[in-house]
Design brief:
Strand content: 5-15%
Distance between the termini: 39 Å
Number of domains: 2
Structural class: mainly alpha
Helix content: 55-70%
Mean pLDDT: 85
Low-confidence stretches: none
Shape: extended
Number of helices: 4
Order of helices and strands: HHHEEH
Strand order of the largest sheet: 1-2
Length: 126
């Protein structure tokens, strides 16, 4: 066996990895609408599928590289309700622009850390 793996080790590796692929398929089908193709035309369905895969990969990258911590295990619906759709108010006055964010200081800290990590990824040394 290549790399010194025995048959038992390969089987154990496949068993460990099995649940992850099923969850990924569930996210693609349910969260990102990969289970319902838009029409009967192959080319349009292929474009739809490609966009869904791109969205899935960007979502996984965002969770791992930007949000980290407890966010990496959350599904798209939870991220949408707890991170993307946060209530807020934009206040302009006294030559200042302020943003009030719902969820308190904890959510503000998560958003600021995410912005800092995105900025770090955008730099050449990021």
């Amino acid at each position: 066996m290549q790399d010194g793996w025995t048959g038992d080790r390969v089987i154990q590796w496949l068993y460990q990895r099995c649940g992850d692929s099923e969850q990924a398929h569930s996210v693609m089908k349910e969260d990102l609408a990969g289970g319902k193709l838009p029409c009967a035309e192959f080319g349009k369905n292929a474009a739809w599928w490609s966009m869904m895969i791109l969205a899935f990969n960007l979502n996984v990258a965002m969770k791992r590289l930007v949000l980290r911590d407890t966010w990496t295990t959350r599904r798209m619906k939870a991220i949408r309700f707890h991170f993307i759709h946060i209530a807020g108010r934009l206040l302009a006055g006294s030559r200042q622009l302020r943003i009030l964010i719902g969820g308190g200081a904890k959510m503000l800290e998560v958003m600021l850390q995410a912005r800092t990590r995105i900025a770090a990824l955008a730099t050449p040394n990021g």
